[in-house]
Amino acid sequence: MISSLNSPATDALELDADDAKPSRSQIKREHLALQSLAEQLLALPRRLLEELSFSELTRVAINETARIKDQRALRRHYKRIANCLARENTEPLQALLAQREAQARAATARQHEVERWRERLIEEGDEALAELISAYPEVDRQQLRSLVRAAQRDAERGRPEAPRRLFRQLRTLLDAHQQ
């Protein structure tokens, strides 16, 4: 009778049951991911938090965060919110965070493009200006040319005013062209 309990078939069932539940390491990784999600959630503006649908328990935990000042208590509170999020559907939150991250990356890329154009215009002058005009034909050529000349003079003197004006003009041009 005892030998039937230790049969290979019983051992296989036990192994299958063990495979079904996640390992302790996996559970820890998932919980840390939820804590990170909780921190990102609490960094969102209040108006975006109100658009997300969470249970009353989660909403209360989120609202309590504002009064917590101690860092250790805040860490514990992140864990509490992570536990609440474990019972919630976090897909809308993750989609919102991904969208905001994509917007931030796009804004950074746009900023870098404006900086590259400004540097090229100051360093290369007319060659870069001709390329910019061919790429963006709607630009006011005379105004841009005068801004480039002033930015070149101010860059030589170490003054930031004209390069900043050129940057603002380029940003306006690229933003208008992108829309």
Automatic annotation (TrEMBL):
Keywords in alphabetical order: Cytoplasm, Ribosome biogenesis, RNA-binding, rRNA-binding
GO terms classed as biological process: assembly of large subunit precursor of preribosome
Gene Ontology MF: a single term: rRNA binding
Protein's cellular compartments: Cytoplasm
Pfam families for this protein: DarP
Chain intervals for the UniProt region annotation (Disordered): 1-24
Origin: domain of life: Bacteria
GO cellular component term of the entry, any: cytosol
Coiled-coil intervals, chain numbering: none
Role summary: Member of a network of 50S ribosomal subunit biogenesis factors which assembles along the 30S-50S interface, preventing incorrect 23S rRNA structures from forming. Promotes peptidyl transferase center (PTC) maturation.
Family, per entry: Belongs to the DarP family.
UniProt name for this protein: Dual-action ribosomal maturation protein DarP
